[in-house]
Amino acid sequence: MKQNQLKLYNTLSRKKEAFEAINPPFVGMYVCGPTVYGDAHLGHARPAITFDTVYRYLRHLGFKVRYVRNITDVGHLTGDADEGEDKIAKKAKLEQLEPMEVAQQYTDTYHRDMDLLNTLKPSIEPRATGHIPEQIELVESIINEGLAYEVNGSVYFDVLKYNEKKQYGKLSGRVLEDLMSGSRDLDGQGEKRNAADFALWKNAAPEHLMKWQSPWGIGFPGWHLECTAMSSKYLGKHFDIHGGGMDLLFPHHECEIAQGNACNHVDPAKYWMHNNMITINGQKMGKSLGNFITLSELFSGSHDLLEQAYSPMTIRYFILTAHYRSTLDFSNEALKAAQKGYKKLINGLRTCEKLSYTDTNEIEQDSKQMEQINSSIEQAYRAMDDDFNTAQAIGHLFNLLKKINSLHTGQLHPSQIGQEGFQKLIDTFTYFVTEILGLKEEKIDHQEKLLSALLQVYTEAKTARNYQKVDEIRASLKEIGIVVKDMKDKIDWAYEE
RNA sequence: GGUCGCGUGGCCGAGCGGUUAGGCAGAGGUCUGCAAAACCUUGUACAGCGGUUCGAAUCCGCUCGCGACCUCCA
């Protein structure tokens, strides 16, 4: 294990800390997943890619990581006009579908998009609706601790009482007094003892679609409960890393800490990591703002803001070129630049496959070249060790790419860097791009165009009576299962039967 | 209003006290049948004003501008 140098920024301390696993070589990581009531958008891609990279890098360092990312298919209340109504249920009524049908549909598209972005699947992907008993148990346990109270079939977390012994607000840096004055008038506010209290269980109105039987009557779980229930079930009461978007910092993650401490008497996570937002024209991209672009729109180019389609790997690369804690502004110009950068990197990958070491006695080793290569390799890893600075790592990879391209064009001879140096250069570049950054070649799929170009050559060869070439083309196409058909007045092709 | 963060060259985006980040775009060159790619060289950057320091984009203060959270949100 190479955990010695890894540092990560812990929101809890607001500092970069050395990463020390609680129980090495194992690492437990919980990341807040999507609420499946709409297509995944660019904003969903950021945490998915950020924590996929964290997952990949921890595994690279030799850790055995259990990566849990939930699917929220119930719970969260909507704001404003539809106060108190379940988000999933609302969408269901709109489309005349079963709530679970909506959740399933968007879970599927989320998975499809995440696969396209080449994110590794989490070890466990639990659903909120599959953990209702666990959540009820949790509520009971918090009531038993004297930190929650029931009113009209709803249960609220007693933040004031909790704050007597523990500190509510330690993650987000809030002070309880400030919170009590600033809170808005929401549904159920009248039932709460204090404005800062939050719901653990909500009484469901008869027309409410998703509801369950509980000791407090028919209802549904509160906004923050599922993550506490599922993280403690699969990772234990105290685990290594909890991740999510910065917008979840308060109140969601703050409440998770309070819930965890209330029933398990320990902070749920040792390290809290938060990715920053993607902005569009400097403003946060979000569902509620109506300025979001879905991933499938991005992949197909079908959105008014898009000048063209951007491939999944272009998006992945684009996100990796910024540090995860910085905001990243969307623009066609930036995406186009990302597309070129990505392709440059992938062309490097292809060049690596083609290169092989050749020795010659006439050329001496060049220690300066070797130093530059070793330094870039070392710095690329050091950048990852420094709070997963993919942007900086990519910069160093481009420096390596220059060497690779120089080898390819003959401006640098393999002998100058020695066999060992040569292999290290090729291997590191390839491994870093594909395994750590998770970038892969997107093969072009233009079968028709390629075939027609080839058949054009075939036709010309035939006209010129160059039958050797004609046979060659026919043979090579046959190898991939395609037969050339010489018709009376044209040349066509068909799949070999 | 409270809390937190940001402002880097034409664009994106690292850097967080002293070394060329890098990509895209631009200019010049090498290579090339042409082109492309690639390689080499290259430019006006650190919002403004003060301060600390031998030295600041980097630390401190103020000013201006922008954003996030405080309500579901990635």
UniProtKB/TrEMBL annotation:
UniProt remark on cofactor binding: Binds 1 zinc ion per subunit.
Binding positions for ATP per the UniProt entry: K287
Entries under CDD domains matching the protein: CysRS_core
GO biological process: cysteinyl-tRNA aminoacylation
Molecular function terms from GO: ATP binding; cysteine-tRNA ligase activity; zinc ion binding
EC number: 6.1.1.16
GO cellular component: cytosol
PANTHER family tied to this protein: CYSTEINE--TRNA LIGASE, CYTOPLASMIC (PTHR10890:SF3), CYSTEINYL-TRNA SYNTHETASE (PTHR10890)
UniProt protein name: Cysteine--tRNA ligase
Organism: Arthrospiribacter ruber
GN (gene name): cysS
